[in-house]
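Entry type: protein chain
Record version: 2
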Amino acid sequence: MANKNSLAELSTEKLIKRRNLLKGVLTGFGIMWLLILGLAIYFYVTKSTAKLFMPLAILPMTLLPLLLQLKPLDTELKNREQQ
């Protein structure tokens, strides 16, 4: 509940700036995940080790807190647009 109050206290410009920052970070991590996937497949074909797929399993879990922060930001911005 404290998080919703803190979002309500922020200005619309700060909320948009925070949302854009989170989207940029998520986009960067998504691109990095695709590169790691490509490298893991390449090294699996050439060296035949499945250990290289461990970062692929861990990276989405590290992005979960960012996704959980992004949803309340979008909700707050939509609520402000409706008022």
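Comment: Residues 12-47 form the longest helix (36 residues).
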